Amino acid sequence: MTSDFDISQYLGIFLDEAEEQIQILDESIILLEQDKENMELLNKIFRAAHTLKGSSASMGFDKMAHLTHAMENVLDRLRHRDLAVSTEIVNLLLEALDNLQLLKNEIVSGQDQQVNVEGVIAKLKKAAEGVVIETLPAEPVSPAVDKRATEIQTEQVKVSALELDDIEKNVINSAEVKGYHIWHVAVKLAEDCLMKAPRAYIVFNNLKDAGEVIKTIPSIQEIEEEKFDRTFELVLISREDADTVANIIKSVSEIDSVAVVPVVTEQENKAADPVISEKSAVGSTGGKKAFQGSAAAAKVTQTVRVDVQRLENLMNLVGELVIDRTRLLDVGQGLKNKLGNQDMVETMEEVSVHIGRITTDLQEEIMKARMFPIEQVFNRFPRMVRDLAQKAGKEVDFIVEGRETELDRTVIEEIGDPLIHLLRNSIDHGIESPEERKALGKPVQGTVRLNAFHRENQIIITVEDDGRGIDADKLRRKAVEKGLISPDTAARLSEREAINLIFLPGFSTAKTISDVSGRGVGMDIVRNHIEKINGIIDIETVQGKGTRFTIKLPLTLAINRSLLVYLDESVFAFPLSSVVEIINVERKNIQRVQKRDVVLVRGEVLPLVKLRQVLHGGGAQGELPDKFPVVVCGISEKRVGLVVDALLGEQEIVIKSLGEYIGQVAGLAGATIMGDGRVALILDVRGLIGQTGVESYAFAG
Amino acid sequence: MEEKNINAEEQLVVFNLGGETYGIDISVVHEIIRLQTITKVPRTPHFVEGVINLRGRIVPVIDLHKRFNLPVSEETQHSRIIVVEVAGVTVGMIVDSVSEVLRLPVANIEPPPTVISAGIDSAYLRGVGKWQEQLIILLDLDKVLHEKEQKELQQQSFAEAAARVE
């Protein structure tokens, strides 16, 4: 079937679509398990499987087509309530889904690795046949479908509910008055129909003689772009009866089936609405629209996929504009001084102000284009949590909140792994077994809550469980046992510090290595990951009550709010996320502790470090002035005061790397270009503090 | 060396450095710009002057005098930065002046002699070109930019520096 057409040019589109459908399946099947009666969900799942079947078949990926076909059969039985949604069925569907994923990967890698799907297909077939006897009464005919409808063929297409705007309603009303029929026609193309858009076009063309098409679903444009599955619908005003209309359409080749029903008038439609919307989705337009659940349906935005690199380039170009804008202002000022208030000079000023405003807007828009809802990451988790809980023999109610929270793409890419680990941690170590919970008087089902939200300039993600909490003493003992700290140090650690021991490299609290968590990754890796994207992780825990991990992340990695400071005429930028406060220190208040300069700030000892010395090394060059600004930086509980020459202010900066030639410099996170075109270096506070030796205060590691 | 066509020629950008004439292949030269504010970057090799803003890009700049251990000459109005791209790495090089672009017949190029000038190591040379009684030192930019010395210098650790702070 595919021999005479080049599939490679469609492969990208196919894979994107497949990914999308697999995502939908993944999310929806899990939800279905919790909400077994949800017809809408079931329909969504069915449509996704159906779409995959169609597209994989037309691409010639037979294994995938067969598998999705088998899934579809089972789903169809579920939809018709011939089968009930059970854990077994859900497991089976998930197994099929896993196989779909494998098949997709096989296609991506381009190598036929012989993923064997026969087994799961057989299981699906059995499931579809197996329990058919226990049927519920057949699905009642949708009230929207008139009994007089002409039904051709056994495999019937169903029409969806019509949404007509005022103009269309007027047209229909006046046509009705004139004695025309108004037909709602649904056309289903043959399964292997390759040129769907031309087919649809021929249908429209042939109908021209019979009447007038006043509406199509999806829109004509979408049909032309083949943005529909196998079914499209139209509203026809015609003198002809339903049979004639159906026959005209049937005369076109590669048509699978046709349904022609009279358009229901508004009053009836309204009354029947809730039912229709549920049933109608069944055979409706397979296009994107249909896949958005009812909740999301309100927000149908058109999107295109853009290469991230392209956005990056746009960002750079805008950066240049920003710089030119400043220069333009300078030139304008210069001209004004020279020539006075001439018309030309004034015009130029106006233009430069306008360009300035556009540039700012442009910058903002491009930044927004890089933002994605965290949904992309979160959606993977319900399935994972379910599997983990099942394996660990625990009952877990998994609550996900804040899916719509947007963050930068680069952050999204990095945050997945740490979250997986934290969720694992909660299920493995946090949540107790059902028996244990019962004995403790807790609800048998444990709760794990994943939440994301914005706070000021940060994204906060929390992973929370109502399990047993973390025992600080146990951690102390464990750390001593492993030789990570001395018994003395362990005894001196505060509760909070003891709990933070969990982040030490080589630390794991799992008594036995379980199947799911024993992969050699510890919490230290989680912390490293999060710090790599300039984030901070915190733990709060109450024994017997539960644990909450809180991750604070910058909105974006590319753009950062910074505190600019002067040091020897150069400008340096402190990422605001690591700045705790700015204080002015008088030289006379400096004290010496362990050969180190410190000051007392509200009773706490703050070590002072001269930024100049950390950056450039060398001895104590010059004396400090009587009074100087200090930037207090913090990482977790550690604080250090960095002495700078002067403060310049706060600014949003675009982070750029120092380039391959220079590479990574410890203590520097990169460089940025300021409004006046100068380059400022961005400090990596963690790297800096690491070099000051202050870190060794916190842990006697 | 392989046999070369008598008529083959190389197109070179010729510049002056510490009183000597150097040439580099024109195809690696992106542009030649005037000296501008260079932002110093701490903890980089001594010959790295810092970074500049090249129309929105951060480009590192090295001083060829320092790279070749030549005495550093005064900055003049003839001083230029030659921006080159070699093996995907973009670097600006400070030179005393850029004199011309010329075509040099390949036949006029000789392999590097062992000792050629006071400072520059022959390892950085690709050859010596003769043009109108003048000698042009042809640089092997790959070596100039990717010599491992650079890496080693970069490894100089913060700890070492921090120790000096005490």
Topology:
The complex is a heterodimer of chains A (701) and B (166).
Chain A: H1 8-34, H2 39-59, H3 62-79, H4 87-109, H5 118-130, E1 150-151, H6 166-177, E2 181-189, H7 196-207, E3 211-217, H8 220-224, E4 231-238, H9 242-250, E5 255-262, H10 266-280, H11 288-291, H12 308-339, H13 343-369, E6 371-373, H14 375-378, H15 381-392, E7 396-401, E8 406-408, H16 409-430, H17 434-440, E9 446-455, E10 458-465, H18 472-481, H19 487-492, H20 495-500, H21 523-532, E11 536-542, E12 546-554, E13 559-567, E14 570-575, E15 579-586, E16 591-593, E17 596-601, E18 604-610, H22 611-616, E19 627-635, E20 638-643, E21 646-654, E22 668-673, E23 679-683, H23 685-692, H24 695-698
Chain B: E1 9-17, E2 20-25, E3 29-34, E4 48-54, E5 57-63, H1 64-67, E6 80-86, E7 89-95, E8 97-105, E9 109-110, E10 125-131, E11 134-139, H2 141-146, H3 148-155, H4 158-165
Parallel strand pairs in B: 2-11, 5-7
Antiparallel strand pairs in B: 1-2, 1-8, 3-6, 4-5, 6-7, 9-10, 10-11
